[in-house]
Design goal:
By secondary structure, the protein is α/β, with parallel strands linked by helices. Helix content is 56%, strand content 14%.
């Protein structure tokens, strides 16, 4: 039990055990200690949210919303043409407990399309009482942000919901969010999303991931950071608060950028309401999933680089300022700690378990993991199990389905793979943001039909900002140092893990040994990873990143100057190595 583990730790000579560690063991101990501390913080937030949820569950009641409510659905044609009519009918016909609902379809298209007349004809259809549809083309728009800005100016409703073109909100979702917004007196309520359609394996895996994200991770983050955030879709705003804002059509993730600006400049209040749910379409495959997640990661890192220098000077309470660092900067270090623990433990744990079950043991006992590290990892494992229990408890409370159960099992089963994938995405994002190149907008194809290509939330325009010399972002130097430090550490970790592979001798008393060629032998050789090599690799990676840091700064400066010159030039070069600036 947890109590027994803590009792054993108290009996240990902890100071003496730490002093006896070599350099690589001490470094790994520091990483595990950081991971445990972050788990303790997350666990405290998780328990606080659990008590808050229980209190809210006792008062759970869906009443009728009598005030006017508007829903904005930005659309990009032709990509979202196959799904938008179904979304319109779902929102207008399936939404319950809302007396008055106006749906605004704001779209942009590069060419005239037949579906435009069909959408206009839908305005004149007979909808349920209190429901109206407005369809408008935003001339000159090339982004979701521009479509939203166009619609927001025209709406006078006290509550405004924002959905993506593939979203089908639950029937009571909108009413729950409006009532929660009024009761808590906040500016924005962010709901959760789940996968309603897609290929079986990917749908289950992403569905499980979304449930853990919206019902475990983000609520825990809110209790620690003292704020939620706006995630772009299935968010319900106070009309008065939203009308004072505008979305940046240059940003990779205009939703997170809007959240940070409104939080820093206006002190708006955001909160999560996971039970306010909306279904969306899954990406069509692993390639589409990769492009979607990479854009998200680059958008988050872009916002971090752009605004982190303002966190310390913001007119917010100390806890809220620290909360911003926790949301945007802390995630780099927590991801690094996660990948170190995963790479160091997964192979060793699997091999040791298999060998011990077959009667094998190490010949050299001095290679055993130090007791203080092993105990600390046990504590970390118990905290990890607590997140699984919390996710399962939420599943029993909000969605008792086989689909979710299978999705959660897949998500936690492939947890190490998920950590490695997220680390790779983070590394690519950091490198591309550091070098000043974020590439072109990659449309996320959705799992609707083999011939349909549906964007995630925007047009197929380049993501390179239309910078002038005065508005090129200059992130604080310390933040660039942190980014380069994390890049070097992760790259060094990967190289050290590969370089440290070696064979270790094991004795076995089992004549039937599950290693090829080991039957009847008293000694076998098994591939293991050397912790010293990992430590040296991380140290070399950090050192190399420090040495190359001045070069990266110069590259960033030259990249910014090149962008300004290209955008000012009347004749832009065209070709496969140059983005099209529209």
């Amino acid at each position: 039990s947890v109590a027994a583990v803590f009792a054993r730790v108290r009996k240990m000579d902890t100071f003496g055990a730490v002093v006896a560690l070599n350099g690589s063991e001490a470094a790994y101990l520091a990483v595990v200690l950081f991971a445990v501390i972050s788990q303790i913080v997350g666990f405290a937030g998780m328990m606080s949210w659990f008590l808050y949820t229980c209190n809210r569950w006792c008062r759970f009641h869906i009443g009728q919303v009598e005030e006017d409510v508007a829903a904005i659905i930005p659309v990009y044609l032709p990509n979202e043409a196959p799904i938008i009519k179904g979304t319109i009918r779902h929102v207008l016909q399936e939404t319950q407990h809302v007396s008055s609902l106006d749906v605004y379809i704001v779209y942009n298209t590069p060419t005239e399309m037949a579906i435009e007349a069909e959408l206009k004809a839908m305005e004149r259809e007979a909808w349920p009482p209190g429901r109206r549809l407005f369809v408008q083309r935003v001339v000159g728009s090339k982004s979701k942000a521009a479509n939203l800005n166009h619609a927001i100016k025209q709406i006078s409703a006290p509550y405004i919901a924002i959905y993506d073109a593939d979203h089908h909100p639950d029937s009571d979702s909108l009413a729950l969010a409006v009532q929660h917004l009024k009761r808590e007196k906040v500016d924005c309520v962010q709901g959760s999303t789940y996968i309603r359609q897609g290929s079986l394996l990917l749908r289950l895996l992403v569905h499980g991931e979304f449930f853990v994200t919206y019902f475990v991770m983000l609520p825990s983050m809110q209790m620690v950071a003292n704020t939620g955030l706006f995630a772009g879709a299935n968010g319900v705003w106070s009309g008065a608060s939203l009308k004072d804002l505008s979305f940046d059509h240059h940003a990779l993730t205009e939703d997170i950028d809007c959240f940070v600006r409104s939080y820093l400049e206006r002190g708006l209040v955001f909160t999560f309401l996971p039970e306010c749910r909306s279904g969306e379409l899954a990406p069509s495959g692993l390639k589409a999933l990769w492009k979607q997640r990479l854009r998200w990661a680059m958008g988050w890192d872009e916002v971090t680089l752009k605004h982190a220098g303002s966190f310390r000077r913001a007119k917010l309470s100390l806890r809220r300022r620290i909360g911003l660092y926790y949301i945007f900067v802390f995630r780099w270090f927590s991801q690094f700690a996660a990948i170190v623990v995963v790479l160091f433990n997964v192979t060793s744990w699997a091999q040791d378990t298999l060998l011990k079950q077959r009667g094998a043991h190490r010949i050299d006992s001095t290679q055993e993991m130090p007791e203080v590290i092993r105990r600390l990892q046990t504590v970390s494992f118990y905290f990890y199990c607590s997140t699984i229990c919390f996710a399962m408890a939420n599943a029993l409370m909000w969605e008792r389905t086989v689909k979710l159960g299978a999705g959660l099992m897949l998500y936690y089963l492939f947890g190490p793979v998920y950590v490695v994938g997220n680390t790779v995405i983070l590394m690519v994002s950091l490198v591309r943001n550091t070098m000043g190149f974020t590439g072109a907008w990659e449309v996320t194809s959705r799992s609707l039909a083999p011939t349909d290509v549906i964007p995630d939330d925007g047009p197929t325009e380049p993501l390179l900002r239309e910078y002038t010399r005065g508005d090129i972002p200059h992130p604080p130097l310390w933040l660039l140092v942190v980014m380069v430090f994390v890049e070097g550490a992760v790259l060094g970790l990967a190289v050290g893990t590969v370089a440290g592979l070696h064979k270790e001798a094991y004795k076995t008393t089992n004549p039937i040994f599950p290693v090829p060629g080991a039957q009847g032998r008293k000694e076998v050789m098994v591939w293991k990873t050397d912790g010293n090599a990992i430590g040296i690799g991380v140290a070399c990676g950090i050192s190399l990143s420090i040495l190359t840091f001045p070069v990266m700064l110069e590259v960033m400066k030259r990249r910014s100057r090149m962008l300004v010159q290209c955008l000012r030039s009347p004749r832009l070069p065209r070709g496969p190595s140059w983005p099209t600036f529209g």
